Amino acid sequence: MASPKSEATQAFVPIEEIRDGIVVLKDGGMRAILLASSVNFALKSTDEQTGIIMQFQNFLNSIDFSVQIFLQSRKYDIRPYIALLEERYKVQTGDLMKIQTREYIDFVKSFSDSANIMKKSFFVVIPYSPAIINSKGEGLMKIFKREKKGDAAISKKKDFEENRTQLDQRISIVSQGLGRCGVKSIGLGTEEIVELFYKIFNPGDTEKPIHVE
What we know:
Blueprint: H1 4-10, E1 15-19, E2 22-25, E3 30-36, H2 46-62, E4 68-75, H3 79-91, H4 95-115, E5 118-128, H5 138-144, H6 149-180, E6 185-187, H7 190-201
Helix pairs in contact: 2-6, 3-4
C-alpha cells in the first residue's frame, strides 16, 4: 500500500502511465524521450563550429512543434568500478600486486571525492497532444457516447497506436535533424524512462547509471 506521502507526491506528477517507451500524460498527451550524445564544440575549427550552428538553426526552423532539451548533471558513481577493483584485489596472489591494487583503490576514491567528477546526460523530450475534437466532431461525440468496457479498451488501444504513429514521425524528424548537427540520439525504452524519473524524484539515490542497449 502506498504511503500518504507518496500518494500526495503522485498527485503533482501528470503521468498516467509509461507504455512501450512512451510517457502518457493524464490529459492524453504523449511524450517521447531521446538520449542524445554531446559534441565537443570547443575542439572544432571555426568553420566546423559555424557549420554546426547553421545546421542546428536549420533544424529548429524545420520543426513546427516544440521540443524540450533537458540536461541532467550528477556526480559520477564509481561504486561499480570500486567493486570490480575489490574483486581483483581478492584474487591477487602476490603481496606486491595486493599492495599496488589497494593503493590504486584508495587513490581512485580520494581523487573522486576531491575532484567531484560529474556526469552529464542530455535528453530531448518530444511532445504530441491529440486534438480533443477533430474536424468531423468525433471527439465531441465520444464524450456523450457510452461504450462497453471491452469496446472502450479497444478504442483506447486504437487511439494510442494512432497517436504513437504521429509521435514516431516527430521522433524521426528530430533524430535526423540532430544527426545533421553531429549529435547521435536514441529513444529511451520503458525501463530507462522509469529509471530516469526515479532518479529525478530521488536525487540522493546514486544507483547504477542509465544504460541504453
